Amino acid sequence: MQRPQSITDNSNSSNDLKHLKSIDSNAVLSPHSMIQDLVWRKVIIIAFIHITGSYGVYLLLTVAKWQTWLFLFLTQIATSVSITAGAHRLWTHKSYKAKLPLRIILLTLFTMTFQFSCISWVRIHRQHHKFSDTDADPHNAKRGFFFSHIGWSMVKRHPEVRAHTVDLSDVMADPLLRFQHKYYSLLLLIIGFIVPTYIPTLWAEETKVAFFVCACLRCVIAIHMISLVNSVAHMWGNKPYDKYIEPVESKMVSFLAAGEGFHNYHHSFPWDYRAAELGGYSLNLSKLFIDFMATIGWAYDLKVVPDELIKRRVERTGDGTHPVWGWDDPDLSADDKKFVVMINKTRNTDGVFALDNIVSFLRQQFNISFSK
Ligand SMILES: [Zn+2]
Ligand SMILES: [Zn+2]
User: How far is the CA of 25 from the centre of ligand 1 (A)?
Assistant: First the structure.
């Protein structure tokens, strides 16, 4: 486990970003070689979890009890939300605040997910936002699908990633996060592997099945679920909020990743606890969770971007695909309204029917002429 970078002042970040963008265009001509940079210890860990997870799929489909299926499903949802509502929206982006019991629950579940320590996760993700899709982005999507999805976690960090650090003073000051960081390997072993292997034995599941399904396979699913955000949600979709950045909107990713696929919006407004403007709870399980926690008083100071600010951003930098629900939607542009063709306009009439319309319709259909 790598220790997080030292805390640095990031006041020159916008200049850094301009510099990085020029580096990135050169990098296309001479791509960084992934093979040369492989870190074999990391390759073996990733290969191990995937081989054991694949065996978990086989056991799940052949011998696992229904209670084990249910346990896998519930732990999968709970741990997914711990990444999205916890490591992501709470600790990385500070989009809301949480009371101690909620922070303990989120951190415990997050530790099960095989996603580095929370402090490391925050460092990687803040760097991803700050230097998005440049060489200083740890999972730079411009280096291809495989690299941004999982390849980045098997190679040495790019020199630009090492050179550009972000402020971590807040998470480093949190004793809970420091504890989890310090004892991460031990906690992962206990909470991520031993506990989920033990619990299914309570309904007489075989230990072998419990280990490969509820520990290994569960970790593999969590890894790929969140990786979709780094790969797919930086490649294929619309950019209704900012067409000048790589992140896109992907409902499929939102469904699979507990609400994290509205990625063009999220990169435009990373402090919004919803990580989305549109989409109901079915596409944003993490918002449902945070709203529920706010209802019981464990989540508070939830930050939301006002509609007017979103609208201004859509008009200024959007690609024109921002959805509108219909005619009076405030997002319908004044230009679109001005050039609309309105047929069969309503006329003022004293009677029940618009007699003029009826006469005109009959004339058109049957070529009838009425003498006045
Ligand atoms: Zn992103
Ligand atoms: Zn983010």
Answer: 19
pLDDT digit string (tens) for 196-212?
999 999 999 999 999 99
Number of domains in the chain: 1
Q: How far is the CA of 212 from the centre of ligand 1 (A)?
A: 31
Convert the pLDDT of each residue in 140-175 to its tens digit. Answer: 999 999 999 999 999 888 888 888 888 899 999 999
Instruction: Kindly tell me if the per-residue pLDDT of 333 is higher than 70.
Output: no
- Is 209 part of a structural domain of the chain? yes
Examine residue 319 and state whether it is found in any structural domain, yes or no: no
| 3-state SS string for 128-166 | HHHCCCCCCCCCCHHHCHHHHHCHHHHECCCHHHHHCCC
Q: 180 alpha carbon to ligand 1 midpoint, in Å?
A: 25
Distance in Å, CA 122 to ligand 1 centroid: 13
Ligand 1 centroid to residue 140 C-alpha, Å: 9
Distance between Cα 155 and ligand 1 center (Å): 19
Expressed as residue numbers, the domain containing 167 is: 13-311
359 occurs within a structural domain: no
What pLDDT is attached to residue 1? 34
**Average pLDDT for residues 293-311, to the nearest whole number?**
91
Residue 344: phi, psi to the nearest 5? 55, 50
Residue 357 lies inside a defined structural domain of this protein: no
Q: How far is the CA of 129 from the centre of ligand 1 (A)?
A: 6
